[in-house]
Write a structure and sequence with these properties.
InterPro entries: Aldolase_TIM, DUS-like_FMN-bd, DUS_fam, DusA, tRNA_hU_synthase_CS. Catalyzes the synthesis of 5,6-dihydrouridine (D), a modified base found in the D-loop of most tRNAs, via the reduction of the C5-C6 double bond in target uridines. Specifically modifies U20 and U20a in tRNAs. One of its GO terms (molecular function) is tRNA-dihydrouridine20 synthase activity. By secondary structure, the protein is an alpha/beta fold. The chain folds into two domains: 223 residues, TIM Barrel; 75 residues, Four Helix Bundle (Hemerythrin (Met), subunit A), CATH 1.20.120. It is 45% helix and 13% strand. The protein contains 19 helices and eight strands. Strands 1, 2, 3, 4, 5, 6, 7 and 8 form an eight-stranded parallel beta sheet that branches. Strand 7, helix 10 and strand 8 form a beta-alpha-beta unit. Helix 6 runs parallel beside helix 7 and helix 16 runs antiparallel to helix 18. The longest helix has 14 residues. The protein is globular.
């Protein structure tokens, strides 16, 4: 979710769900240690519960980042061992680290020793042509010995050469049974499943076998699915009154960011999917992605787009949305 789940998207998402666990985009440990910490780590406290996802393979560097995450107020630090991007591989981290479970274990131990928040791992079920379930089981078991108890498993292999990151999310077959089996074989661990999950019916089916579900791009492109999360999974009566209400609740946030110099387009790009599947959704997207309209624009542009969607709000309140 690099360049997607930035703080503006997460602030938007929090108006749709109070309880869903949010994750940052993956941040290279070097960028935190030697770059602009405010840019990479800043978040609004209402985003919690929130996990900082790290990329890296140097135990000492990751340990320092884990402590920084704790000091900044993150609830969890997650090590990405699943990204197949060649850019990530060139830095010797991401999915290629599944071939080095001892190094991953060293990283986990160093991070756990450095901080008091949860240290978790996100990974694939295999690498390239390695499709044996035993490879997955051995990797998780060894990393668990270092102190990791939560594993977020993307149920596809990562193909390190020849496929783009997008193709890596679509071409390698999903093997949900591997993740289910992992939970059966290591029941003491928290196993969270990821990959190709597009609706709540599928999520609830997976929860018959594992402890949690991670949804990425579907929750980005069809953000309103988050509006049911608190009721379905957290026993909460809270949910946003409507898409319009959720959007208008962000007005003060947006205006404060604009006053701080944020171009409106860096926010509106995250809300294009709010009305996915609703009448007028195409016009909503067109208005809020029009470079000419966005230039020097402020909240009134969003308000105008919301007003154009008014008929959809009536449909929604009547409970007849598609």
């Amino acid at each position: 979710m690099l360049d997607w789940t930035d703080r503006h998207y997460r602030r938007f998402a929090r108006e749709l769900s109070r309880h869903a666990w949010l994750y940052t985009e993956m941040v290279n440990s070097g960028a935190i240690l030697h770059g602009d910490k405010l840019r990479h780590l800043r978040f609004d406290e209402v985003e919690n519960p929130l996990a900082l996802q790290l990329g890296g393979s140097e135990p000492a560097d990751l340990a320092r980042c884990a402590k920084i995450a704790e000091d900044w107020g993150y609830d969890e630090v997650n090590l990405n061992v699943g990204c197949p991007s060649e850019r990530v591989q060139s830095g010797s981290f991401g999915a290629c680290l599944m071939l080095e479970p001892t190094l991953v274990s060293d990283c986990v131990k160093a991070m756990r020793d450095a901080c008091g928040i949860d240290v978790t791992i996100k990974h694939r079920i295999g690498i390239d042509a390695v499709e044996d379930y035993g490879f997955l089981l051995n990797f998780v078991a060894e990393v668990h010995e270092a102190g990791c108890n939560t594993f977020i498993v993307h149920a596809r292999n990562a193909i390190l050469k020849g496929l783009s990151p997008k193709e890596n999310r679509e071409i390698p077959p999903l093997k949900y049974d591997y993740v289910y089996r992992l939970k059966r074989d290591l029941p003491q661990l928290e196993i969270i499943i990821n990959g190709g999950i597009a609706d709540h019916a599928a999520a609830q089916q997976h929860l018959q076998h594992v402890d949690g579900v991670m949804v990425g791009r579907e929750a980005y492109h069809n953000a309103w699915m988050l509006a049911e999360v608190d009721r379905l999974y957290y026993g909460s009566d809270w949910q946003p009154e409507s898409r319009h209400a959720a959007m208008r609740a962000l007005r003060s946030y947006v205006e404060a960011e604009l006053a701080d110099g944020l171009p409106l387009r860096l926010f509106t790009r995250h809300i294009l999917g709010l009305f996915q599947g609703m009448p007028g959704a195409r016009q909503w997207r067109r208005t809020l992605s029009d470079a000419k309209l966005l230039k020097d624009a402020g909240w009134p542009l969003i308000e105008a787009a919301l007003t154009e969607m008014r008929p959809a709000a009536v449909t929604e309140q009547e409970g007849s949305e598609p």
